[in-house]
């Protein structure tokens, strides 16, 4: 099969399009003929990490059609459309993943949007409801709101009944985020985020902050209300995650770290993704796709995802 592989950590240029052996479908696995690949923030981070072996295939998320099932798999069938999450291997024509990390694609949802739903919306829902405990009438600040998790978080928070303050940059992003449910959009390149949040909340600060960026954590804490909650997930901004914890302690604030990799097989999280896929199929949530690349141009796709400030997910097709 063809895949995007790399042999050493580095910039997008380390990716190359190559022939590699087909993956083996284990007894608990399904083999997916990949049709759509979602480039996730973790993919970009992992590409900068030492690969586990030569010709390593990066990639968390993809969707397609089941081509084979393992001998112990009972709830999936050859020919079924599924979307999947795993820690590596999605940047390829074929992908073997545990059946427990797949979800059937409901009728009415295309494969492209299905590939981008579990991580973006699953993460947003977990951060906002399970960890963040957001309630109707509260105010939530969403950092990196133009990214996949951010766009999902805006919609989930609005459906909860919260007032959404989104951080992004540019008029196009402001209009898009407003249409998706943001009550206020702060252009981080033109305005001080903390000052704006305090003004919009009459000096109180946000009840909840969702931060998928990482490098903005200190700003997030400064914009957080006394006894507020900060949920930080991922590190899209790169760099360290060091923060001064003296102020959160003094203000009785709560910090929650989220890493979804170990959570998707939990029954309640797995069922949440099923619900989100159905919501996407029915048009109750919008999965925003910025641009689609062919897999053979994976290096260009990764570069675009890192440097072009995309509005939504960057996708690939084999």
From TrEMBL:
GO terms for molecular function: oxidoreductase activity; zinc ion binding. Residues 10-316 form the Enoyl reductase (ER) domain. It comes from the Bacteria. It holds the Pfam family ADH_zinc_N. Signal peptide: none annotated. This is NADP-dependent oxidoreductase. It comes from Aureimonas altamirensis.
């Amino acid at each position: 099969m063809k895949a995007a592989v790399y042999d050493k950590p580095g910039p997008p240029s380390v990716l190359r399009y190559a022939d590699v052996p087909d993956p083996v479908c284990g007894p608990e696995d399904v083999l997916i003929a990949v049709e759509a690949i979602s480039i996730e923030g973790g993919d970009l981070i992992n590409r900068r990490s030492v690969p586990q072996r030569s010709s390593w295939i990066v990639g968390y998320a993809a969707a397609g059609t089941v081509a084979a099932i393992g001998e112990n798999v009972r709830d999936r069938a050859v020919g079924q459309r599924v979307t999947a999450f795993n820690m590596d291997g999605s940047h390829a024509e074929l992908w073997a993943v545990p059946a427990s990390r797949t979800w059937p694609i409901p009728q009415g949802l295309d494969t492209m949007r299905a590939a981008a739903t579990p991580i973006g919306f699953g993460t947003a829902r977990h951060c906002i409801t399970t960890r963040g405990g957001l309630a109707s009438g509260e105010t939530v600040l969403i950092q990196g709101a133009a990214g996949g998790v951010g766009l999902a978080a805006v919609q989930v928070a609005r459906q909860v009944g919260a007032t959404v303050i989104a951080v992004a940059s540019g008029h196009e992003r402001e209009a898009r985020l407003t249409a998706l449910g943001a009550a206020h959009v702060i252009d981080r390149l033109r305005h001080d985020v903390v000052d704006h949040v305090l003004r919009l909340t009459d000096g109180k600060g946000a009840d909840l902050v969702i931060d998928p960026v990482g490098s903005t954590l200190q700003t997030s804490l400064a914009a957080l209300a006394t006894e507020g909650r900060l949920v930080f997930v991922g590190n899209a901004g790169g760099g360290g995650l060091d923060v001064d914890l003296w102020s959160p302690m003094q203000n009785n604030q709560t910090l929650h770290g989220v890493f979804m990799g170990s959570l998707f097989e939990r029954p309640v999280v797995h069922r949440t993704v099923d619900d989100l896929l159905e919501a996407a199929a029915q048009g109750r949530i919008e999965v925003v796709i910025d641009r689609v690349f062919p897999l053979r141009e994976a290096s260009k796709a990764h570069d675009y995802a890192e440097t072009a400030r995309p509005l939504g997910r960057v996708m690939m097709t084999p």
